[in-house]
Specification:
Blueprint: H1 2-16, H2 22-25, H3 39-50, H4 69-77, H5 80-86, H6 102-113
């Protein structure tokens, strides 16, 4: 009986583990130009469309104000912006209405990897 329980637990443990690599979780979107990403031309419009409805103004949701580069910068530095939009359980998933399209996520990730300039 004890042996059966151990085998059952070992089997459950083995099947409960999963691994996905970054390419599977965040597939590259064809036609999404991430070579040179500008904050003002590409990132700000994404934030306006997906974030600023809640995260701007005098009383931003969660006290997270993303209405300017200076306000976005701390969330870039600590990784919470990218974690939130990737829905990877390291931050509250944002936007709560549903995950952004992969191109927008790729653009934000590329901008951060390129130094997150205020350009």
């Amino acid at each position: 009986m004890a042996r059966n329980c151990i085998l059952l637990l070992a089997g459950a443990l083995l099947f409960s583990c999963s691994y996905k690599n970054e390419e599977e979780l965040y597939p590259v979107v064809e036609g999404c130009d991430t070579l040179s990403v500008s904050y003002n031309q590409r990132i700000l419009p994404i934030l306006q469309d997906n974030c600023l409805g809640c995260h701007s103004g005098a009383s931003p949701s969660g006290d997270v104000n993303l209405d300017s580069y200076a306000n976005v910068w701390p969330y870039i530095q600590n990784g919470s912006l990218l974690n939130a939009i990737r829905y990877n359980n390291l931050a509250s998933p944002m936007p709560p209405s549903g995950k952004m399209n992969n191109c927008n996520i790729d653009l934000i990730a590329a901008w951060i990897n390129q130094g997150a300039s205020d350009n």
